[in-house]
Write a structure and sequence with these properties.
- The complex is a heterodimer of chains A (269) and B (265).
- In chain A, α6 packs parallel to α11.
- Chain A has 269 residues and is an all-alpha fold.
- Chain A has eleven helices and no strands.
- Helices cover 81% and strands 0% of the residues of chain A.
- Chain A has one domain (4-262).
- In chain B, 40% of the residues lie in helices and 23% in strands.
- In chain B, the strands form two sheets. Chain B has a six-stranded mixed sheet, sandwiched between helices. Chain B has a four-stranded antiparallel sheet with strand order 2-1-4-5, covered by helices on one side.
- In chain B, α3 crosses α4 (120-133), α3 packs parallel to α5 (150-163) and α4 (120-133) crosses α5.
- Chain B has 265 residues and is of the alpha/beta class.
- The chains are: A mainly alpha (269), B alpha/beta (265).
- Chain A binds chain B through residues 2, 5-7, 9-10, 12-14, 16-17, 20-21, 24-25, 89-91, 93-101, 105, 257, 260-263, 265-269, and chain B through 13-14, 55-56, 59, 62-66, 68, 84, 87-88, 90-92, 94-96, 98-103, 107, 110-118, 144, 160, 172-173.
- The structure holds adenosine-5'-triphosphate (ATP) and magnesium ion (MG).
- Magnesium ion binds next to α1 of chain B.
Chain lengths: 269, 265
């Protein structure tokens, strides 16, 4: 009972801390949000370069890519970045010395990442909605949202893997995170069908949960696919999450044990 | 039961730039086999030159490092096998204050107390008492940590540790870089918590007077080994030629080989 309360308070403390940090870095947050919104608009505008009846759908196709990528990359980055941030501040030893389960700490990090990712994406969505007249008559929005929700689970799993490197080395970790993110961006068909990729890369595409997410969300938004027909993808994403999240937690715990043996958390003092 | 029990504890590190696939450098020995026990309620001092292994030893006891060999027990719990149990009992203050620098002291302490599952309002109350007692101006508690002086940050770090009422408090050079008044504030406060809570304390320091004043026993560490362990008074008498603990420290930690031979004999 007491343990449960302790763990709940600990997770809340991590979330609260991150939101406090946002308040202190509000200037940056506004700049990031502005850049994200403008970036999404410029990508949407590409859809208008070819005249013709398909214009609206092309803009919608690209906007979905921009929105989803915004959400999933923020999710991945926030989870993997949390450890990096603590290393830079030097607080990592204090967070890891607390008598709570590591899962609790990471749960706090992930819960925060989801809320924060949603807020950031909502800002972009508002910008897109104000800027373009998107044809949404055919769209099945509940279906699209369901896919989005399901996709956050495997992405959190990937984020946990992404958090491992920063635990072992602050700089290398930051580099690794960028590379992983870049690969996902390339192969997942964010702004184009993956059929345009070279064959060998297409094979990699099917490993990325983002590929399935985008396909399904586009089916829902462009072609009105309903919840029932999206269910296989949703279940697939959840299954991938059920595999990736425990695997990520396990890998994290192995890496933490290594870090404690090799003295990687912090060395000066 | 001992508060701390260390049996032949050893720790080596790979130097920076040495990779598993290409070993080029010798390992650095931080601790070369240390054994000692600390009684409950004792204040145990660790004195030693830079790089002698003080912080490594404190990290091992605080579950932030795993020993290569040997056993470390905190109130009977093995730090390697039962880190969770150990973590419930301890807290640590390091030389660097280690906070989220843009956050205020209040926000940092909220985070710290939350991690330990404390009730936020009760923890805030207690933090304020501690900070007031340590002489931190009241308006400072809401200012970002980066706007505080080192000494003020260190006081917040001490408050962070004491908030959780640790049974074992590990202090790694808590007064290094503090002005004389702040140092005295901190030292008096350490005496106070010893008197009231019977907290066991491990204190590493470069300040001989501090060790003399606060510690029941002092270990002198050099090259990862304890080369002497006794009460400050006995150490001063035995190695300092009547010139105090500092003379004893200099004699023991210097390159005085004749003394080393004498010790071995
Ligand atoms: N995490 C680490 N990785 C690599 N080497 C380390 C690590 N921690 C300590 N060392 C090395 O181990 C030795 C002992 O370091 P330690 O920090 O314990 O000394 P110290 O007595 O605390 O010194 P100081 O008085 O400067 O604080 C040093 O040679 C140091 O470089
Ligand atoms: Mg040190």
């Amino acid at each position: 009972m007491i343990t449960l309360r302790t763990e709940r308070r600990a997770a809340a403390a991590v979330i609260y801390r991150n939101f406090s940090l946002i308040r202190r870095y509000l200037g940056w947050e506004l700049v990031f949000a502005f850049y994200n919104a403008v970036n999404a608009l410029t990508i949407g505008l590409i859809g208008l370069t070819q005249p013709g009846p398909g214009q609206g759908m092309r803009v919608l196709y690209l906007s979905i890519g921009a929105l989803l990528w915004n959400f999933l990359s923020v999710l991945f980055f926030e989870v993997s970045n949390s450890v990096m941030w603590e290393r830079w501040e030097g607080t990592i030893e204090y967070s890891f010395m607390a008598p709570i389960r590591r899962v609790t700490y990471l749960f706090g990090v992930c819960a925060y990442a989801i809320v924060y990712g949603l807020v950031r994406t909502l800002i972009v969505l508002v910008a897109i909605a104000l800027f373009f007249h998107l044809p949404l008559a055919q769209a099945d929005l509940p279906g699209a949202l369901l896919v989005l929700a399901a996709s956050s689970v495997p992405f959190i799993g990937l984020g946990l893997f992404g958090a491992i490197m920063p635990m072992l080395s602050a700089e290398r970790g930051a580099q690794a995170t960028q590379v992983i993110q870049g690969v996902i961006l390339l192969v997942s068909g964010i702004y184009y069908p993956i059929s345009v990729l070279p064959h060998w890369l297409q094979a990699v595409s099917w490993l990325s949960p983002a590929t399935y997410t985008l396909n399904a969300v586009r089916d829902a938004a462009l072609r009105g696919a309903g919840v029932a027909s999206l269910l296989p993808t949703v279940l697939g994403l959840l299954a991938a999450g059920a595999l990736l999240v425990p695997a990520g937690l396990y890998a994290f715990s192995i890496a933490e044990r290594y870090a404690l043996r090799a003295g990687k958390l912090k060395r000066n003092g | 039961m001992y508060a701390i029990e260390c049996l032949d504890v050893q720790k080596q590190f790979r130097p920076e730039g040495d990779h598993p696939w290409r070993r080029r450098k010798e390992k650095v020995t931080a601790l070369a086999g240390i054994s000692f026990t600390v009684e409950e309620g004792e204040c145990f001092g660790i004195l030693g030159p830079n790089g002698s292994g003080k912080s490594t030893l404190i990290r091992l006891i605080s579950t932030l490092l795993v020993p290569d060999a040997g056993v470390v027990r905190v109130f009977g719990h093995d730090v390697t096998k039962a880190p969770h149990e150990v973590r419930r009992l301890i807290h640590r203050v390091s030389v660097e204050a280690s906070f989220f620098k843009k956050l205020s002291a209040q926000e940092n302490l909220d985070y710290a107390s939350g991690l330990y599952g404390l009730d936020r309002m009760a923890a805030r109350q207690r933090a304020q008492e501690i900070l007031l007692r340590l002489g931190l101006p009241k308006d400072k508690i809401r200012a970002p940590l980066e706007e505080m002086s080192r000494g003020q940050q260190q006081k917040v770090a001490i408050a962070r540790a004491l908030l959780t009422s640790p049974t074992l408090l590990l202090l790694d050079e808590p007064t290094t870089g503090l002005d004389p008044r702040s140092r005295r504030d901190v030292q008096e406060f350490i005496e106070e918590i010893r008197a009231t809570d019977r907290t066991t304390i491990i204190l590493s320091t470069h300040d001989m007077q501090e060790a003399q004043r606060l510690c029941d026993r002092v270990a002198i560490i050099r090259g990862g080994q304890f080369i002497a362990l006794d009460t400050p008074t006995n150490l001063a008498a035995r190695y300092g030629g009547g010139n105090g603990l500092e003379a004893a420290f200099l004699a023991l930690s210097g390159e005085d080989l004749s003394l080393e031979e004498e010790l071995e004999a």
